[in-house]
Amino acid sequence: MKSNNPTSSQPNSAEPKTPVQLQPSNPAPTVFRYGGMRIPPSLVFYEKDYVYAMLPLAQKLQGHIMLVPKRQVLNIKDFTAAEVFDLGLAIKFLSKELELFHNTASSTVYVQNYGRIDDKINHMCVHIIARKKGDFTKNDDIYSILNAYDKDFLLEYNQTIANGHVFSEAKVEQLGLIAYKYKTAVDKALLEIKSLN
Predict the structure, then answer these.
(1) DSSP string, 49-86
(2) Partners of 128 in the beta sheet?
(3) pTM of the model
(4) Which CATH number goes with the domain that contains 184?
């Protein structure tokens, strides 16, 4: 408000000065998707700029996780350099942490690519599974099981989350507890790494 005196450049002393209040920006939370399906955040225990790790609905073994690019791509050859970098570091880090968590000495890393768009999930992912001696009668059986993973995941998703059954809530809660334990272990490891730098 200006003074009635045109020669005065002083503000009216009766007018209170109000500092400008800047509101902190609250970015929208990440929506995690695998194919066209929305993944409950409680199943996600690790996130970087271009990838996230989740506990799969259809776990094949204890210690089975999935690493998923945030951008839906069919094949790893379609990745940008930044996506390859994030994915590579995540595979290295999570494989090690999974083995420590489950007290194993090895893990299977399986890249699931798609050659073309079809009626499946159409979202490249990486399965990481902590392995123990004798977990399969034939060691290579793991690959045929993971080749058919889409069908199992879609079935589980459609029977639980997609339909909002009570079973869905129980299943997600159960997996969410495991994901929380993984997240706690992963966050601790990341803090240790940060303290060394």
Answers:
(1) SSEEEE--SS-SSTTEEEEEESS--S-GGG--HHHHHH
(2) 65, 109
(3) 0.78
(4) 3.30.428.10
